[in-house]
# Entry
Amino acid sequence: MTADARELAAGVFGGDRRAVARAISRVEAEGPAAASMVRAIHARTGRGYLVGVTGAPGVGKSTLVDRLTAVLRARGPTVGILAVDPSSPFSGGAVLGDRVRMQAHAGDDGVFVRSMASRGRLGGLSRATADAALVLDAAGFDVIVIETVGVGQAEIEISRAADVTLVVTMPGGGDGVQALKAGVMEIADVFVVNKADHAGADRAAAEIEAVLRLNEYGPADWRPPVLRTRATEGQGIEEVVEAVGRFRVRGGDGAEARRRARVRARVRELVSRRFLEHAEHGALEPGEFDGFVDRVADTVLDPYTAAERILELVVRGAPSADPRRPRARLEAG
Ligand SMILES: Nc1nc2c(ncn2[C@@H]2O[C@H](COP(=O)(O)OP(=O)(O)OP(=O)(O)O)[C@@H](O)[C@H]2O)c(=O)[nH]1
Ligand SMILES: [Mg+2]
# Structure
């Protein structure tokens, strides 16, 4: 961990907003600076409650998050918000919805808003978002909201990083519910049918409830409630906060199991990423990895054999500065 990261971390722990913003920028970038930042703050995380809010574009997520924030602030908890847009190359708090939100909570040190975007890269956004959430957690925010636009794989991945996931939808289209795709039903702990002032809200809610009755999604001890809101009017917001509260305190070890599953997924992801990096750029000779790729492309080798050989090279050829490194165990096994 660099002295630089440690100094920034001290600012984060002290709730210095500039330090928080800079720390998030650090974790947004790929590479050693992000890892160093997370190393410096990680021991102070684990206290914040992560709320994922996802749904199709324009259903009212930002309006809802804004209202939820107001209700939470009135009750006391501080709120950090990450607005994630996997389709946008821009980030850093310039999104219109965030500006509106910034104004609504301007001058309130208990609210911090930041947008995150893909910046043109394909992978890494969910990693960066999870790390940014750690920064907000370390800064002492009680509730951390991760708002993601859309209902694709990226959003689902990001939602998995939350302690509770709200799926927001609105009445509309021929099927009564706008864009409730496969994969989204499974991740919802709480459904919000927003824009309940629009026609068809009751039918939309009934349809979701019908699907829920036919399937066993999510934790066994929890049937996701389907709540109707009018976010622009602030209607139904208290009920959403109550539902999240009930989910949070529900009995059993569901919450802890989810947290552990999340930690496991992160560690696995990092191991596989590091392993691949090592295979492509560390353990093999320059160009060797591409050589395997070429041979598979030319059907000289099959992909399974290529993978086996690469694996062998990585395991055997790994530089071992410390003889007690687990390499010995790998070879023994
Ligand atoms: N009629 C009605 N309009 C709403 C309601 N909630 C939000 N809106 C409006 O819907 C539009 C989209 O709201 P946002 O909160 O920006 O929606 P979003 O889901 O965050 O949108 P993206 O971030 O672009 O995906 C805005 O014009 C809101 O004023 C509601 O309950 N009823
Ligand atoms: Mg939004």
Observations:
- The chain is about 50% helix and 10% strand.
- The chain has two domains: 46-251, 259-332.
- The longest helix spans residues 254-283.
- Confidence is low (pLDDT under 50) at residues 320-333.
